[in-house]
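Thread: Modeling a multi-component assembly for a lab meeting

Hi all, long-time lurker, first post. My supervisor asked me to bring a structural picture of a complex we are working on to next week's group meeting, and I have zero experience with this. I have the sequence lines for every component (559 residues in total). Could someone generate the structure of the whole assembly? Inputs are pasted exactly as I received them:
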Amino acid sequence: MALSLLQPGAALSAEWTAPEVDILRSLWIGTLGPPPPDPTNAVADDPDAAAMGHRLFFDTRLSRDGNIACATCHRPELRFADGLPKGVAIGMTKRNTPGIIGAAYSPWLYWDGRRDSLWSQALSPLEDPNEHGGNRMQYVHIIANDPGYRRSYEALFGALPDLSDAGRFPEDASPLGNDTWAENWRQMTDEDREAVNRVFTNTAKAVAAYERLLLPAPSRFDEYVAAVTEENEEQKNAIFSDAEVAGLRLFLGGGNCTQCHNGPLLTNFEFHNTGVISAPGDVPDKGRIVGVDQVRADPFNCLGDYSDAAIENCAELRFVRAGTELIGAMRTPSLRNLENTGPYMHQGQLETLADVLAHYNAAPEAMIGHSDIEPLGLSDRELEQLEAFLLTLAAPAATSERWLNPPAADTPHPHGD
Amino acid sequence: MLTKIGRTGSALVCLLMFLMNPAAGDAAETSDGSTPVDSEQGLFKVSYRSSLEPIVINEMHEWVLHVSTPDGQAVDDASISIAGGMPAHNHGLPTNPQVTENLGNGSYRVEGLRFHMRGDWEIVIDISAGEQADRVRIAIRL
Ligand SMILES: [Cu+2]
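Re: Modeling a multi-component assembly
Sure thing. I ran the full set together rather than chain by chain. Output:
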């Protein structure tokens, strides 16, 4: 940096050293590739499963009151987030709704990583009283009674169990949820419960296949990196303003941002305590230290009976770490798509990007655990430059319109497409 | 892990090593894996081969460690535990790597390695075999 300042006449901000270019390329979407395979889900990349999942994702019948779908909170027009501090459906959830574009790349789901696959994640909101609020038995009946779902399901996973005996398969039952549902579940035989869990998890695997299509597209930042790689000065200057270049420099340098926001999704998918103060009235969120125990205990995790993975494919779970560093730690979010996904942080505590950057600049002591960040001492102007850079990472999803809108009500059997 | 060796003894050796080689402990010296690294007390030599070559961040991978005595004899019956982190950032490893297989001939499979930042890392390997226990520090720059 000091050197380039000494070069008279050089377009000062536009010079990148070879190691810097190397880092820039590591953030470039061109190095992303397709989502990693999901060995826990045998239909992860099956287009028919994705078509079924697409319907499920937008289907409000999958809820206690008939009004809530995944898309109620994960709104396509808001990059699959909701613009609220915390997610709201039947009730208010404890955390901010993340956009789910690119979620298929993460080994852990949720801010605290308490799930380890997209499908095991999808089971939770369906039974959470603040979210969809229903129960697995109810959903399994919906799949069996809807001719379209039944056809798709049986083509993908084989015959549905015969659910006609209301004594064996009541309307509502789940080990989670209210007392009646739990009692109904308790009364069922092991085999019947296993049959219901099987349909419930297969259904979630179809939702996961759909989510795997929600992918990030190249942003202006990616065009800039391409121009840097090609050493195309004219392009570089046309794509990025001086402020954006200066912001990028701070992102790589004095801001230390790439310690955690690295790789082509601008996240290492790891857990860090960054000392974000909890929302007024909320106790500090313990984050990963609780999430790690939950994912280990989850019957639907990579090593569980409903996972299609062999044990060798569960390295993340088998070698997961615990320990005090995880107190108050949250999974680093991707920084692609910040322009309309605020408010930010795990409880939507910080309203604007300027608030987020002020937080990093001050780096307050963590309320619980130990913060991984240190004060930056950046000027107001530098913070503005950083913000200008962050906004260059935005881009619409690289997913065709068809998948971004609810499927037409009369969508025929997916084999017709 | 160093229980078998007196604390004073190990502190002395550290001091001596430091005096002989002021760069010791400077993580900037990256080991390429194939050149064996001496353990702190000089009881073992350790080399490794990574399934990811070169090692990059954010990818789960495994290593095969090779443990020998200073004169090159394979150490077959070692029990080994792995820790480490980024000394400059004061944090540990993002995973909990473990030896999952004794491959014989002094070789051991370590699964569950992943690094989540660029910079200087240190892998700390505690080895005990028979009456002997010692620690090896492997420096990696990513
Ligand atoms: Cu670090």
